[in-house]
Design a protein that fits this description.
With 413 residues, the chain is α+β, with helices and mostly antiparallel strands. 46% of the residues lie in helices and 14% in strands. The strands form two sheets. Strands 1-4-3-2 form a four-stranded antiparallel β-sheet, with helices on both faces. The chain has a four-stranded antiparallel β-sheet with strand order 6-5-8-7. The chain is rod-shaped, with a radius of gyration of 56 Å.
Length: 413
C-alpha cells in the first residue's frame, strides 16, 4: 500500500484545444459501479444453483414416488393373482383328495359306476358352479362330443399329463364357443398306482365373478389371459375401466398352477408428487428463494452504507492529514479504507520537509575559521522544522520604510 499514491504523480495527458467559437462540451456525469451491481453475479449464480438443486431434488422425489407407485401396483396385481391361485388351489385340493380316497380308487378299479356317481353328487354340492364331473379310465382316449360340455382331445391331453406323473395345469378349453369351459384334472391313484383321472369342469363366466371384487378401490383395469401359440392369447375375463387398455400394461403376473396370467392397468397416472407433497416442496424452496433475495438486498444495502461512510471518513481524514493535523486513530470500518489512510500517512511523511537540528561543534568551528556568527538556540530547545509549524508568538515582522530611508539614517549617525 506504500505505492498506492504513486499513480497520482503522473501528469494527465493534455486535452486537445477546442475549435474557436465552439461551445465547451458538457460531460454528463457517469454512473459507476456500486456494491449491488458488483454482487449481482453472485446472486444470479446462487439463484441458478438453487433452481438446479430444486429441479434435481424434485426429480429424485418423483423417481422415489414412481418406485413406490410401481411397488404398490405390483403388490395389488400380485394380491389379485394370489387370490385367484388360492381359490383354484382350493378346488384342485378337493379334487386331489377325492382321487386319493380309498373308496373312489376301489370303485374306479372295479368299474363301480354307482359308487362313482355318489362321489360326483357330493362334489357338486361342494362346487355349485361346476358344469360336469367325469372319471376318466387309465389310458382311455375316447372323446365325447355329444355331452355338454364335450370331452375333447384337450381334456384327454390333461389326463395323459397326469398319467406321466406331472401335475396338469388348470386350462380353459373351447374358449369363444358356446361350450367354452375350464378343466381341472387330478389323478385317481392308490397304493398300487394310478387307476384313472378325475376331471372337473367349470363355467368360464365364474372367472369374471371372481375378478370384480379383486379390483382395487382406486380403480384400474384387469384382464385374465391364457397364452396360446404364436404369441396369441385368449382373454378369459376382465373387470374395471376398459378405457385404460390404450395405455401400456402396468404389470403382468402369472397365476400359479394355471396356464393363465393376470394383466393389470393401474389408474391414470397421477402427478409425480401428491398435492400436499408438491405444496411442501414449493414452500421450502420458495422460502429459500425469498430468503436469498432478501439477504442480498440487506447485504448490499448495509455494504453500500458502510462503503459510503468509509469514503466520507477517508476524504475527511485525508484533508486533515494534508493540512498538517496528524491522525492516529482512523475512524473507518473497512480494512481497505484503513490501508488507504495508512498509505496516505506514509506518503505525506515522505514529501514533508525534515526537521533541522544544528550541530554545536560544527557551528563553533565555523565561527573560529571564518568569523561567521551562528546563533544557536538555548540548550534543550529545537528549531522549528518548517515555517508552517512555527508558533505565531515566536515570529517578529518589521515593516521597512521607503528605499533609501535606512541609508540616510546610517549617514546621520
Amino acid at each position: 500500500m506504500t505505492s498506492l499514491f504513486d499513480k497520482f504523480r503522473k501528469k494527465p495527458a493534455a486535452e486537445p484545444a477546442p475549435f474557436p467559437g465552439a461551445e465547451p462540451e458538457q460531460k454528463k456525469p457517469t454512473r459507476g459501479l456500486n456494491v449491488r451491481v458488483m454482487v449481482m453475479p453472485l446472486l444470479v449464480v446462487a439463484l441458478v444453483v438453487l433452481i438446479v438443486v430444486a429441479a434435481l431434488t424434485y426429480l429424485q422425489f418423483a423417481l422415489l414416488g414412481q418406485e413406490r407407485r410401481d411397488a404398490l401396483t405390483h403388490g395389488q396385481a400380485d394380491r389379485m393373482a394370489d387370490h385367484l391361485a388360492g381359490r383354484l388351489q382350493g378346488y384342485t385340493d378337493v379334487i386331489a383328495a377325492t382321487g386319493r380316497a380309498p373308496a373312489v380308487v376301489a370303485a374306479m378299479a372295479a368299474g363301480d359306476q354307482a359308487t362313482l356317481d355318489e362321489h360326483v353328487s357330493r362334489l357338486r354340492e361342494l362346487f355349485p358352479s361346476v358344469l360336469r364331473i367325469r372319471f376318466i379310465a387309465l389310458g382311455d382316449e375316447r372323446v365325447d362330443e355329444t355331452s355338454v360340455p364335450p370331452l375333447s382331445y384337450a381334456c384327454l391331453e390333461l389326463a395323459r399329463i397326469a398319467e406321466s406323473g406331472q401335475v396338469p395345469l388348470v386350462e380353459a378349453h373351447l374358449y369363444g364357443t358356446q361350450v367354452q369351459h375350464i378343466d381341472m384334472l387330478r389323478p385317481v391313484a392308490g397304493p398300487e398306482g394310478m387307476v384313472g383321472s378325475l376331471l372337473v369342469t367349470l363355467d368360464v363366466a365364474v372367472l369374471r365373478d371372481w375378478l370384480r371384487p379383486l379390483l382395487p378401490a382406486d380403480g384400474g383395469y384387469v384382464e385374465l389371459r391364457q397364452g396360446g401359440a404364436n404369441g396369441k392369447h385368449l382373454m378369459l375375463g376382465a373387470a374395471g375401466d376398459a378405457g385404460l387398455q390404450g395405455m401400456p400394461a402396468t404389470y403382468s403376473v402369472a397365476i400359479t398352477g394355471t396356464a393363465w396370467s393376470l394383466i393389470y392397468w393401474a389408474p391414470a397416472r397421477l402427478a409425480a408428487l401428491s398435492t400436499v407433497q408438491q405444496t411442501a416442496f414449493l414452500t421450502v424452496f420458495g422460502v429459500g428463494l425469498v430468503t436469498l433475495v432478501v439477504a442480498f438486498v440487506l447485504f448490499t444495502t448495509v455494504a453500500g452504507r458502510i462503503v459510503r461512510g468509509d469514503l466520507v471518513a477517508v476524504v475527511k481524514q485525508a484533508v486533515e492529514m494534508w493540512s498538517g493535523r496528524r491522525q492516529h486513530n482512523f475512524e473507518v470500518r473497512l480494512a481497505e479504507s484503513l490501508d488507504v489512510l495508512t498509505a496516505l500517512a506514509e506518503h505525506l511523511q515522505q514529501v514533508q520537509p525534515k526537521q533541522v537540528r544544528p550541530d554545536a561543534a560544527k557551528a563553533a568551528a565555523m565561527q573560529q575559521d571564518s568569523g561567521i556568527i551562528v546563533d544557536e538556540p538555548p540548550e534543550g530547545e529545537d528549531m522549528p522544522s518548517s515555517l508552517l509549524f512555527m508558533s505565531q508568538e515566536s515570529m517578529r515582522v518589521e515593516e521597512l520604510g521607503p528605499p533609501g530611508t535606512d541609508q540616510e539614517k546610517n549617514d546621520k549617525s
